[in-house]
C-alpha cells in the first residue's frame, strides 16, 4: 500500500506536474470565476518561470549532496559492500535486448571499484521491482549482465530482489545477510540519496559506512552559473523535492532515524 501510494503521490506533487495541474485548475475555474481562474493561471506561470530561471533545484540538490562526504580511507577490513538499485531501466532492457542504464548508473561503477579493491568482502546488489507500471522488470537481471561485462561475473554477488523502495532495500538486505556486530559494511548510492538511505539503515539498527558517488552538482552554492537552464533546473528540483519529501515521510512513518542527518553523522568521513 505504501509503495503504490507513494508512486501516485509523487506523480501529482513533482514540481512541474503540480504547476501544470494548477494551471489546468485555473482554466477550469475561468468558466465560473473568470478573475480568480486567471489569477491561478498567472500564479502557475510565474512559478514555472521562477523555478525555471532561479536555481532553487540545484541549490537544494547541493545541500543534499553535502550532507555526507566520500571517506578518505575505508577500513582495511571490509566485511561487505551494498549498492542500491536505481541505475538501470529494466523495462527498456527487456524491450531492447541490451542493458539500458540511466544517469544514476555511476553508483554501480563505484560498487565495482570498491569490490575489486576488497575481493574478500561480501557483495550485495539490492534492487527488485521498483517500476509500478512494469512489475515484471527486474533490475537484478540488468545488474548480473553488467557485472559480467565488467569482470565481476565470477564474484560471489548476492542479489536482493524483493525490494520496491529504499526502506525495503535496507530491510530485505539485512534479512538476507544478517550482519554481525562489529562488521564493516559499506553502503553505495548516489550522493543526493545518501541522507535518506542512511536514515533508514540506522532506523533498522544497522550502522553502515556511507560511500556516496554519482554527484549531480559541483558542490558549490551558486546563484549564477551561466545562462539559465530551465530543463536542468527543473530536473534538479524534481530530484531534490522527492528526496526531501522522502526524508520527512519516512521519518514520520517510523522508517528513518532522522529528517536531517545529525551534525556528527553529516560531517563524518
Structure commentary:
The chain is an alpha/beta fold. The protein has a domain of 144 residues: Rossmann fold, CATH 3.40.50. The chain contains eleven helices and five strands. Strands 3-2-1-4-5 form a five-stranded parallel sheet, sandwiched between helices. The longest helix has 23 residues. The radius of gyration is 20 Å and the shape is elongated.
In summary, what is this structure?
The longest helix is centred in the C-terminal third of the chain and has 23 residues, at 230-252. By secondary structure, the chain is of the alpha/beta class.
Largest beta sheet, briefly?
5 strands, parallel
Residue fraction in strands: 5-15%
Order of strands in the sheet with most strands: 3-2-1-4-5
Termini gap: 37 Å
CATH-defined topology of the domain at 72-215: Rossmann fold
Low-confidence stretches: 264-269
- CATH top level assignment of the domain at 72-215: Alpha Beta
Annotated CATH homologous superfamily of the domain at 72-215: HUPs
Radius of gyration (CA) equals 20 Å
Mean pLDDT: 91
Which range best describes the helical content: under 10%, 10-25%, 25-40%, 40-55%, 55-70% or over 70%?
40-55%
One letter per element, helices H and strands E, the order comes to HHHHEHHEHEHEHEHH
What's the architecture of the domain at 72-215 in CATH terms? Answer: 3-Layer(aba) Sandwich
- Output the structural class: alpha/beta
